[in-house]
Design a protein that fits this description.
By secondary structure, the chain is α/β, with parallel strands linked by helices. It is built from 19 helices and ten strands. The protein is globular and about 65 Å long.
């Protein structure tokens, strides 16, 4: 479930038997395909009238999440039941859930350990009776560990002392992760409460997959229990807005947050079980890099469906660092820092990065943009160069696991730098040596967790599907 999964064979599950540049502003559709010779943009028809319940899509709040009806429409349009769908940037597993619903086998991969954990939890087929029983046992444990309501009211304007924190942790043998600047991100009493919930989950008798779900439910409350602002998606910040809220008195009851999240999770996994297609088994989800995975593949995939990271828009490794530590996926800051170089699209890439040590022989458009950026912002040019090198390698890896004619669908948003539009489709076409861009689809984004400002004033209210064909 964590870094140890790197290197596992990426084999899709068998069919069951018997059951993108620094972005700012919002552009018109032409901004994405400026100068692109592909066909005109086609509106994507997304029907939602007969959509099932929310399923497990909202088990964990994740930035840049796929819009489920869009993914469902794309799977139906470009694949058939029993096909293997692959998402190399699986994120929170939306494509895998929709593949389950559509009767397709699926395989997901991500470099982010939290993404892998969340995707697995969202796509397991649980024994609902055993899950309910474990949830009841856990709830009884938590009930005796929760503070009185009056104490939470008092702690809206106060906190326990450092001495009380250390004594409580020692007395109750509570584990607390080695989060740098722990006191900056959490009040001391919240640290105790979270540690108590974590301990209760660890001590509750249950099977491995049930514990996985309980752990992810726990992770889903970390952000709201912390001092970090839950709204910005670009990274992790204790904003002035949150400081004002704390000054005015903010009620933080981790136990109450967990109760609500657990109940929603129980409903969501039951919904998924009810609508699970009998044609497919559970998806396989692995941790790995999108720049180096083909050698661990056996066979090929029938459809690639993914949304690559946006260049310099979201610091995924910072965004989920609190959850990463509390889940025990990074036992130390040193371990976490070793993961950072593997993230695509991150800012402040060091010159010693392996991708920047490769020969720089860019295609025309990438070279022009890198040169333009370098003239005024060398660091940004370096980040862009790293991003294009990584995406070129990603396409190269995908070519090795797809047959001629197989479609690779990339969902992207409007992209610009320094007020100038970057023709994303043309850029990706140049980077995709063994693929041809067949068509471009477009759809509006409504009420999506990314539809407001992000890093560098980025914003997305329309997305595009670049439909590549393996040549």
């Amino acid at each position: 479930m964590a870094a140890g999964d790197v290197g596992m064979s990426l084999v899709g599950p068998p069919a069951a038997t018997g059951r993108a540049g620094e972005t700012e502003g919002v552009g018109e559709p032409s901004a994405v395909v400026s100068g692109n010779p592909a066909a005109d943009i086609e509106p994507l028809d997304v029907g939602q009238s007969s959509r099932p319940p929310k399923l497990t899509h909202y088990l964990f709040r994740y930035p840049a999440k796929f819009h489920p009806p869009v993914i469902s429409a794309l799977i139906e349009r470009y694949s058939k039941p029993g096909d293997l769908v692959f998402d190399p940037f699986v994120g929170s597993g939306t494509a895998l859930v929709e593949a389950i619903m559509s009767g397709r086998r699926s395989l997901g991969m991500d470099i982010d350990p939290v993404a892998v954990e969340v995707s697995r939890a969202k796509t397991r087929r649980y024994d609902l009776a055993r899950l309910e029983s474990a949830a009841e046992r856990l709830s009884r444990r938590l009930k005796v560990r929760e503070r009185e309501e009056a104490e939470y009211g008092r702690l809206m304007f106060a906190d326990i002392s450092e001495v009380e924190l250390e004594e409580t942790l020692a007395l109750e043998a509570l584990w607390v992760p080695a989060i740098p600047r722990l006191g900056h991100w959490f009040r001391r009493y919240v640290v105790v409460d979270l540690a108590r919930i974590h301990q209760a989950i660890t001590m509750t008798r249950c099977d491995a997959r049930t514990r996985l779900l309980l752990r992810v439910v726990f992770a889903s409350i970390i952000r709201n229990a912390s001092n970090a602002d839950p709204v910005p998606v670009s990274g992790l910040e204790y904003t002035s807005h949150m400081k004002r809220r704390d000054k005015d008195g903010r009620l933080i009851n981790p136990f109450a947050l967990f109760r609500v999240a657990l109940q929603k999770a129980l409903v969501s996994v039951a919904d998924l079980a009810e609508h699970w297609s009998d044609l497919v088994a559970e998806p396989s989800v692995y941790q790995g890099s999108a720049t180096d995975f083909a050698r661990r593949f056996e066979g090929s995939v029938d459809l690639v469906l993914t949304s690559p990271p946006y260049h310099n828009a979201v610091d995924y490794y910072r965004r989920h660092q609190l959850e990463l530590f509390w889940l025990g996926l990074a036992p130390s800051q040193e371990v976490r820092e070793k993961l950072i170089p593997s993230y695509i699209g991150r800012p402040n890439v060091a010159m010693k990065d392996p991708l920047l040590q490769l020969p720089w022989n860019p295609p025309a458009l990438a070279g022009q943009w890198e040169e333009r950026m370098r003239a005024s912002a060398p660091r940004r040019a370096r980040d862009f160069r790293h991003y294009t090198q990584a995406m070129h390698q990603c396409f190269s890896q995908l070519a090795q696991v797809t047959r001629p004619g197989v479609k690779a669908l990339f969902v992207v948003g409007h992209s610009s730098w320094n007020g100038q539009e970057i023709p994303t489709a043309t850029l990706f076409q140049e980077l995709a040596d063994d693929f041809e861009l067949d068509e471009i689809l477009s759809y509006p984004v409504k009420n999506r967790y990314m539809s407001y400002a992000r890093r560098n004033n980025a914003s997305i209210d329309r997305e595009y599907v670049l439909a590549f064909r393996r040549t």
